[in-house]
């Protein structure tokens, strides 16, 4: 089993401090895996298409975890493609695709209540597998890398999924 990576937070004063340890959660084999959740949901067909081209990422998220996945819905990818003047084929063939996908994965389980508590006093940085991303609260909503979290805490046997309305951007 992999050692859990610590999530590092930074406030406006830019001093680094570790986020409090997350509550251990039992792994249940009765739950679907992260990959099964993503592949069974019609809102994630573009995410599935992207992940399926990356065997290393498939292997990673099939692992024991725990992981947190910030899963963009199809409209998030469609908007991102349009904003970047890319076709789906161009994006799938891009050498930057693995890094883009890894920005959506934390190497630990992060529940929404813990994320909201961590950003209560201001934005923090999360260390995803691809880059640092900013987590922040706007009104009552949680944002990760500029993407609004629209559904939270979809539990999986090897982690948790939070649904986002955009492609997560790095710092």
TrEMBL record:
InterPro entries membership: Adhesion/Biosynth-related, FAS1_dom_sf, FAS1_domain
Signal peptide: none
Domain FAS1: 31-168
Gene3D superfamilies the UniProt entry points to: FAS1 domain
Pfam families, alphabetized: Fasciclin
GO cellular component terms, semicolon-separated: extracellular space
Region (Disordered): 1-24
Protein name: Beta-Ig-H3/fasciclin
Organism of origin: Bathycoccus prasinos
């Amino acid at each position: 089993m992999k050692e859990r990576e610590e999530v590092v937070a930074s406030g406006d004063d830019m001093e680094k401090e570790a986020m409090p340890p997350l509550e251990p959660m039992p792994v249940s084999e009765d739950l679907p895996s992260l990959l099964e959740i993503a592949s069974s949901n019609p809102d994630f067909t573009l995410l599935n298409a992207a992940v399926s081209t990356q065997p290393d990422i498939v292997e990673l998220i099939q692992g024991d975890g725990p992981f947190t996945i910030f899963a963009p819905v199809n409209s998030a990818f469609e908007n991102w493609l349009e904003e970047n003047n890319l076709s789906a084929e161009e994006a799938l063939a891009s050498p930057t695709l693995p890094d883009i996908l890894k920005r959506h994965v934390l190497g630990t389980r992060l529940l929404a209540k813990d994320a909201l508590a961590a950003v209560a006093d201001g934005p923090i940085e999360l260390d995803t597998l691809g880059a640092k991303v900013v987590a922040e609260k706007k009104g009552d909503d949680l944002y990760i890398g500029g993407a609004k979290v629209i559904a939270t805490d979809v539990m999986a046997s090897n982690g948790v999924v939070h649904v986002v309305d955009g492609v997560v951007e790095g710092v």
